[in-house]
Amino acid sequence: MIGYIEGKLLKKEEDRILLLANHVGYEVLLPAFVMETLKTKQIGDEIALYIYYQQTERQPKPVLIGFNLEAEKEFFQYFISVEDIGPLKAAKALTIPVSEIASAIESRNIVKLKQLKGIGNRTAQKIIAALEGKMAKFALIRKGKQLEAPPMEDFSQLVLDVMTTQLGHKGREAKQMIADALKRNPSISTPEELFEEVYRVEKKS
Description:
This protein is an alpha+beta fold. The chain folds into three domains: 4-67, CATH 2.40.50.140; 70-138, 5' to 3' exonuclease, C-terminal subdomain (DNA polymerase, domain 1); 142-202, no CATH class. Helix content is 42%, strand content 17%. The chain has helices spanning 32-37, 70-79, 87-93, 98-106, 110-113, 121-131, 136-139, 157-165, 171-184, 191-202; strands at 4-12, 16-21, 24-29, 46-54, 63-67. Helix 8 packs across helix 9 (171-184) and helix 9 (171-184) packs across helix 10 (191-202). 33% of the residues are buried. Mean pLDDT is 87; it is low at 143-152.
């Protein structure tokens, strides 16, 4: 199973790249929002991707789908758990950043979800029914500003680790967001509640 690849960019196509790692060229399918982040990359540049590996009896040829962040890959795994959304359909559908899709799911924004390629009204409703209440963490990917932060409480360390290692936040920024959330709601007692409180305010910004 391949979960992560670092290597040199050999070729770029509309929806995939060829990545050279350890003298092997890997063809990696990229959702449009990931491909957009590689626009400035040139042939020979170093690239690192988290990989979703797909191979089944009906589809024996392995398919590699790439993401910039581990959290984006995790979101993808949630997304393909929705009825009638397989990995290939999902990869084509993800035309806007994960944080925007997650926010649309949490706010039940069917119009926004229908902007995804191949997603109609019925499928958008299925996505909301299956994933609402699970997306606050992903809605926080790469958002917010870098701020000074007061000391952290021990409980929030897990959330801090996730925000900095998986969601792309800088340490000071994440500490401030968490501290503000705990100040607003001192009764928070689980990481999930803390993610919800941080997201509740961030979606308004």
